Amino acid sequence: MLVKLSMEFGSGRTAMVTQGAAMDEPPSRPTWSRQIEFTLAGIGCAVGLGNVWRFPYLCYRSGGGAFLVPYLLMLFVLGIPLLYMELAIGQYTRRGPVHALASVCPLLKGVGIASVAISFIMCIYYNVVITWALYYLFSSFQAPLPWQNCNNTWNTPNCTAHAINGSNFSSTASQEFFKYKMLEQTDGVHEAGTLRWQLFLILILAWILIYLCIFKGVKSTGKVVYFTALFPYVILIALLINNVQLPGATDGITYFIVPEWDKLRSVDVWVNAAAQIFNSIGIGFGSLLAMSSYNSFNNNILKDTLTISIINSLTSILAGFVIFSAFGYMSYLQGIPIRQLAVDGPGLVYIVYPQAFANMPVAQLWAVMFFFMLLCLGLDSEFAMVEVMVTSLMDAFHRDLMNIFRRKEFFVLAICGVACLLGIPCVMQVGIYVFQLMDHYTAIVSIMFLAFFEVIAICVTRLSANVKEMNGSRPNIFFRVCWLVVVILIFSIIQFKPARYEQYVFPSWAQGVGWCIALASIIWIPLGAIHTLWLLPGTLLQVIMHNPKTNPSINPSIIYNPLNPH
Asked: pLDDT value at position 198?
């Protein structure tokens, strides 16, 4: 997400990649009017729904407090060094992910295109989560709450308001509201079902909200970020104050912070910790790299890196206290152990917590506040992903796009419209399976491959020299060592596990569709390499080490605009 930028471009340093007149882009690039705005935008981009439901779920599944040990270790070994790397390359090149990666390593310029593709695919199904939040928000203005009892037309004879996963023959009121009222889900991906018109209309409303917030670019988004980035913390703190006073909350918090040390022997715990750091901060999605391209050339990269990454992790831990205190309260009410309360994936937010609201004083107020907070968290991250697509295409085809659409507002509207149409399968009765399939093969499979090649693409030696040029000194030896370790670490955690939703394992043909979704992004990496080898003269080593800053004889459009065949 981009926050309000200064409209006075000044006489700052011209970016390295603006040498060629062949680049089809605006003549100059604005900078942040105040650096605090970039910091807030980065926090808003990194902090999202994953902090609220994915972190507590993984922490619970991995043994409570034992998960915090590898999580914090991965933060310092994986998260901070990679974020520093992305912010540095974006700030130095002053370009979006496509042109930034092309300028660093022409052979792997497809990594930049792949990051844009991943952001676009994610923004399609990510807005479905915002749609669910809006649906629950609208449903919260009822007394009693629709998931508070089993006296509804969609409830089954097995519905109970007093147990969660405690029996194989019962389901809670909140589970049935999620599955049978909102989703009306089918029994598997083989049954498409019909379009859920209520969800489809809310999906359109969600995209309208996104468009209204970003259609003016940095001007309109800047007016939104101060609220959307800060409001969730107000709600989380208010919920925590309320929850810690509930009976049983202490047991939930104890489960959260006291480790089960035997869990640390499991490789899955460490893989989950690395994946959470990766997805939470947003490494490889291109959002933070694009935002850092609007920084002033001499901006302190380390300060922004530490601020964004540490606040992101502290937010996850704060959300953990909120969620696990609610777990303790639910365990007290239902008389079952805490380890039997968690559900898979999005259900942590949309099943477990609504069930906790049902037993809280002034349930409607807490429900409205919580789902409005989810809306703010989702909008922040959605801004960033849509902006990556818009900025990258405008950088590459500014003149052509303006000839077609005349105004940037119409181009942004076209992007939002296409993404909305592509999201229709996610709001059908089969939608939850489509959502899970897209999320597994994009946020887990694709992003791991992308990160591996991104670290390789950004030559550590050259990046260190670039940082010295901007800040006056090379990165700390800690960062340079971690960049090398990260290559080995990411390679070791690239593990394929078939997608599943709760106990449902997708059939082979659905897994094939999932791989097609993954290839829609990572296929650009080999295609970009083939394109470079075909067009640039010299040996393979010369192409890899090619630096257009010292060899201007090569037409820069070949490197910086890989989507342009000329």
From this structure: 93
